[in-house]
Every structure is written in structure tokens, then in C-alpha cells.
Amino acid sequence: TAVTLFLSVAIAVFLTRSITKPIKMLRQKTREIAKGFYGRQINLSSLPEINELAADINEMCRKLTETDRMKSDFFSLMSHELRTPLTSIKEGTTLLLEGRGGEINEMQKKLLTIINEESNRLISLINSILDLSKMEAGMLEYRFIQADVKPLIDRTLMEIEPLIKAKDIRTEITASPDIPLVRIDPERILQALRNLIGNAIKFSPKKGTIKITVDRNQSAIEVSVSDNGPGIPSEELLRIFDKFQSPKMGTGLGLAIAKSIIQSHGGKIWAESAPGRGSTFTFSLPA
Q1: How confident is the model at residue 10 (pLDDT cuts 50, 70, 90)?
Q2: What is the CATH number of domain 1-140?
Q3: Distance between CA atoms of residues 101 and 92, nearest Å
Q4: Is there a shared CATH topology between the 1-140 domain and the 145-286 domain?
Q5: Does residue 199 contact residue 229 with C-beta atoms inside 8 Å?
Q6: Which residues pair with 183 in a beta bridge?
Q7: 168 near 204, Cβ under 8 Å?
Q8: Predicted confidence (pLDDT) per residue in 211-259, tens digit
Q9: Which one, 82, 121, 180, 267, has the greatest CB density within 10 A?
Q10: Annotated domain spans of the chain
């Protein structure tokens, strides 16, 4: 009787594990799919029903991967095709504004300025799409060196000073004295900083304040950008770094690009916010 009971329990445990293990694998894979990761295939099970389900999920992932690739190729191709004529339009309007085509009146100057500004905006959008396509394809080049992050913050603020002055925004920078050099691509970190600080400016009220802090946190440094804008609802905060998911923040690409850049440096990026309480975007880099 004892032997029979033992065998019954052993068989029950074996059958339970043989069923629950593939189910756990399926659950893990569906979570990965929900996050946009399609690459890893599910190992087929000995159970026919689960085996069929796993095969269907693998095929779905293959098609999703192919769709993503085609979409990236399309964006890349269209961006290249659009950038050349837009650059020509921008250069042409710049020459006209400089008086190279003859004297222009105030109305013409105003219209040419609008065309020039919109051309710049579209070129910036196209460059963002190209960068994102390269990032997703793993083709974006990084040139890593040991560098200090603080001068990059100063440079970013200098580059976007006209935007800061236009809204009479006050900027406060606080940096711990023991911030070490970190392994970064300075140009890419500048790109991430422009996106984060640019968003803070966009959503800060006139005469608002933007606080930028640089801290040491164990084996990493953390850079935070805080504003006193309207804040972000919790349901939007969950997908704020997804591409095309934050239209209120602009094109919906800047934060996705910043996330990709920081992750390529082995770091993390996150946001904290609440309606009416402003927002804080923070990224960490291994030190």
C-alpha cells in the first residue's frame, strides 16, 4: 500500500510538472510579446495540445518580427527620400531670408521664416525616425570613451538657451562632488539630454523652474531632470517611453530614442510624475 501510494504521488508530481512547466513557458513568452520582444522561440513540449499552441505562438512571433522589420525598412527608406528635398527647401528659404534672391518685404520674410522653421521640425523628425530605425536594427554606431557627464549638461543648456529664454525658465543644476568619469558616447548622451531637457522646457509654465541633478548611487551615476509642469497621468506614464505612444510630448519618438541610448550604455531610464505635480525623468549609467 505504501509503495502504491508513493508511486501514485510520484506519477502525480511528474504529470503536474510536465503540464505546468510548458504552461509557465507559454505565460513567460506572452509577457515578452506584450513588451515587444518576439525573438526567443518556445521549446516544443511532449504534450500535443501545448505543442500546437507553442508552434502557433512561434509562428506569430516570426510574423511580428517580419512586420517590424518591414516597418523599419519603410520608415528608413521614406526618411531618406524625404530628407533630401526638405534640406533643399530649408537651404533655399535660408538664402532668400539672407536676401540672396533680392529684397523681400516683411510679409515675405514672415512666411519664409515659417517655412524654414517647419522644415527644421520635419528634418528633426526624419532624423529621429532614422536613428530609431538604426537602433532597432542594431546598426547605430557608438564611440565610447571615459567622460564627465556634467559638461554635457552645460553644453545642452547652452544649445537650447533660446528655448529657455523664450519662456523665462530658471534652471538649477546640482551635482555631487564625487561624480566619476563614465564610459559613454558623449554625442549620444547629448542626444538623450536634449530630449529630456527639451520636454521639460516644453511642459514647464512660463517663469517655471527646471532642476537637473547628478548623483552617485553605489555603482552608478544618476541624472535627473525635473519640471513643475502639469504632470503625467499614471496610465500614460506606463508607456511613456514607447515609440509613438507620447504624442503630447511631441512626436512620440524622443523618449523612445533616449531609452534606447541609455540601455545601449548598460543603464536604466524611468519617469516619476503625478497630475499637477510636475515630472522627473531619471537615467542611470554604470560607473
Answers
A1: low
A2: 1.10.287.130
A3: 10
A4: no
A5: no
A6: 146
A7: no
A8: 999 999 889 999 999 999 999 888 888 888 887 665 455 566 889 899 9
A9: 267
A10: 1-140, 145-286
Spatial distance between the Cα atoms of 97 and 91, rounded to a whole number of angstroms? 10
pLDDT for the residue numbered 285: 97
Sole residue written with cell 532668400:
96
* Alpha carbon separation from 6 to 9, 11, 16, 38, 111 (Å, rounded): 5, 9, 15, 42, 87
Of 58-62, 188-192, 274-278, minimum mean pLDDT range: 58-62
Rounded to 5°, angle at Cα 128 from 122 and 129: 90
The amino acid sitting at 264 is S
Q: 93-106: string of b/e by CB count within 10 Å (b at 16+)?
A: beebbeeeeeeeee
pTM over 0.90: no
**At which residue does the C-alpha cell 510536465 appear?**
18
Place of cell 527646471: 210
Q: What is the DSSP string of 219-247?
A: TEEEEEEEE-SS---HHHHTTTTSTTS-G
